Amino acid sequence: MTAPVLSLKDACVRYGDLTAVEGVSIDLHGGETLGLVGESGCGKSSVARAISGLNPLSSGTMMVQQEDVAVKLRTDRRFLADRVQLLFQDPVASLSPRLTVGALLAEPLKIRKIFNADTWAAAIALLQDMGLGEQFLSRYPHQLSGGQARRVALARVLTAKPRIIVADEPTAGLDVSIQGDMLNLLRALRDRLGLSYLFISHNLNVVGRVTERVAIMYLGQIVETGKTGLLFRDPAHPYTKALLSSNLTIDPQRRRERVILKGELPSPRNPPSGCRFHQRCPLARDICAVRQPRLETQADGRMVACHFPLSGGSEAMAG
Ligand code: SF4
After folding, report:
1. Is 213 in the pocket of ligand 1 (CB under 6 A)?
2. pLDDT, tens digit, for every residue of 256-273?
3. Mean pLDDT of the region 140-149
4. Residue 217 Cα, ligand 1 centroid: separation in angstroms?
């Protein structure tokens, strides 16, 4: 397999005494869509912001196209922005209300000092590809529907010619039919432009539809990662199973085996000892409260952080 376009190793993000992300490692390959999934507050948006350069990593390393981002940024402050772009969750809020669509599209080209007749024509062509004709150039964000605003935000992000797009809940708040259009558009653009996506979502139906691999986060850590089809069919981590079982539309049969989690999501300011999931896990044993399970590769290729994984082809890992 070729080297990943993005590689995060042992990444931590801290805000004062709060550790939002701890020890997260992610590889994203060229042309791939990797899902990052978990409940709100699990740290996935902090990962998105760190990868997009909005928050620095507190520790750990990030490589993009095999270059150490922290080192490159010392001499090239646009190194990350030229390669990684964040598609914000709320497109209308992310678009300046005082700028027309035309000005919004031109802005990234001007910032990069590459605004000319050719790049402008390419930006308009991109907008037209998305079904938005030139009449949209004079409109303001508040005059756009949710779906149109997302397309404008996407076109604007693409004018920077990134290799990687971090898409934070790109279909949140859209009608199901518009969601489908947006997902098809993202996939078509990925294939045509050779993009890679880190796809952040709590919507498992969407993640199941668009991602090849998925990483499940709980309380700042990745608890299971592997091929989406495998994890969705046969989750190995009790938390992955609980998350999937709460989503009845993925498989209505799961209604009968729904796992109800005990208690609330603990505070990341004061995470539980041992396995962070142990207070809510229906399978917890004594060891779980004292020993933190490491993310280990299983026989079927997935990685799971659990002393007693449900499947994945490994022997019991406790000891
Ligand atoms: Fe549950 Fe223990 Fe596995 Fe944690 S390590 S998920 S508490 S079985």
Report:
1. no
2. 466 777 777 888 888 899
3. 90
4. 14
